[in-house]
From TrEMBL:
Superkingdom: Eukaryota
Organism: Symbiodinium pilosum
InterPro entries: Ankyrin_rpt-contain_sf
Descriptive protein name: Uncharacterized protein
Length: 112
């Protein structure tokens, strides 16, 4: 998680090659919930490390994807960044037809 926080891509590659657990949790600074290294990389705005972690399987369920998107927003990553686009694509693919309905319901719109 420290390599993800400081954007150390080489250290992250070595850790992943050595069998590091991408799902290991730690407390995130801004949110107070238990987040993984992907959340920490997104929170700090380290897009390269975040992309490496996604490729290693860090975002494999809807909860992790949504947490990473929240952290990316906190980290100041724009919606046009590659990692945010990748996470949004994974979220749409994971949630399927319910993704649009959930998005509209949060905004208070009808989705009939």
């Amino acid at each position: 998680m420290i390599a993800a926080a400081y954007g150390q891509i080489r250290a992250a590659c070595r850790l992943l090659a050595g069998g590091a657990d991408v799902h290991q949790r730690g407390v995130l600074r801004h949110w107070g919930f238990q987040g993984n290294a992907l959340c920490r990389a997104c929170e700090e705005g380290n897009e390269e490390v975040a992309h490496l972690l996604v490729e290693a399987g860090a975002a494999n369920d809807a909860v992790e994807i949504i947490r990473a998107l929240l952290c990316a927003h906190t980290g100041g990553l724009p919606k046009s960044s590659k990692i945010v686009q990748l996470l949004q694509h994974k979220r749409r693919r994971r949630l399927g037809p319910f993704a649009r309905r959930a998005s509209l319901a949060r905004r208070g719109r009808n989705f009939v």
